[in-house]
Amino acid sequence: MNLTKEEQAVLDGEQGEGKRKAMEILVALGKIYGAERLLPIKNAQIAGVSYHNLGDAGMEFLETLAEEGAKVEVPAMLNPAGMDLIEWKKLGIPEDFAKKQKRIVDAYVKMGVKPTCTCTPYLVGFRPEYGQHVAWSESSAVTYANSVIGARTNREGGPSALAAAIIGKTPYYGLHLKKNREPTILIQVRTDLERPSDFGALGYAIGTQYPNEVPYIIGISTVNESDLKSLSASIVTYGGAPLYHIENITPEARRKIHPLPKEKGIVEEEEIREAYEAINDEMEEVEFVCIGCPHCSLEEIKKIAKLLDGKSVKRETWIATSRKVKAQADRRGYTKVIEKAGVKFACDTCMAVAPLKGRFKSMMSNSAKASYYARGNNNMKTRFGSIEECIKTACGG
Ligand code: F3S
Hints:
It is a single chain. This protein is of the alpha/beta class. The chain is about 40% helix and about 15% strand. The protein has 15 helices and 14 strands. It has helices at about 5-10, 15-30, 50-65, 95-110, 140-150, 160-165, 195-210, 225-240, 250-255, 270-280, 300-310, 325-330, 335-340, 370-380, 385-395, and strands at about 40, 45, 75-80, 135, 170, 185-190, 215-220, 245, 265, 290-295, 315-320, 345, 360-365, 380-385. Helix 8 links the parallel strand 7 (about 215-220) and strand 8. Bound molecules: FE3-S4 cluster. FE3-S4 cluster binds near residues 79 and 119.
């Protein structure tokens, strides 16, 4: 891997131990993946924030790095933490977990990282432009950035995204290269997709049938932001590739910059129904309802407020969102209606990274991805449906 004189000096420790460690991570990655050089990035999104996932070793690594003077060179923000950083008590988070979670966020802040704590950075002021290179690590955000925005990012791990933020560069390989962004399979959708959760089911169907392929999807005429958030989260969770194209909709497909693949697959109504069936478990009762994976947008919160107006929930119900979007919901009066119905906001966190294991046996959500993690990480039985169905269940229906 070719380093400039300045980059080599950083690797030699001339700018301190924190930067040396970060450069070492990037060079090691670049060598593994055959990158010729480093590439400047616009910003970085860093996963590996929850104490639930990091533990003491991860927390101490971050604190040491911060003490060694590591500072980010480009705007950098955090993925969800293991708790709402302000209202953690309301969500039943234990005090010693909260203390350690705060130490982790403080270490990031000391390095200059913004504690946005969201997987939808594109909704809170960190939306890259078409063709810009970034280093993001949360899988749904990475997929959204690549596919919907046309920015370029690999699916970074937490440490590599942090290292990229500290250096302001990332190794030039993978999805930063145009040739690796070409679709590898044409998927014809032959059924109507009416709700965002249907797009989550589509992501399941494509991901499980064609793992690690980059699909070029045809047969979809209109989508909204919620549909694309939902598809971005599920297709990478079940399939692995953080990139898709949709004819006439996503930017690289609109610009017709790639050759179309010869291989073809079809998704029909049956595959969508099977996806719902596969994600839904048999269960007697839903104990916990959580909406917002990826984090809810303002539009989604508006919809929830409308559905809950004058009602009250009978089950523990959370809305996971970013603090910034919640503040917008406060100003528009949605929060008041929602909280009056007994629903709790879970800002800065989500159902997958909060310490929920053993607290609930079952969960309903509007997200195929959340269902995957509820089962896998937290041993919950899962139910998956639209926001309307989630609210109906939350209210005892
Ligand atoms: Fe975001 Fe958590 Fe889902 S990080 S995409 S809400 S699992």
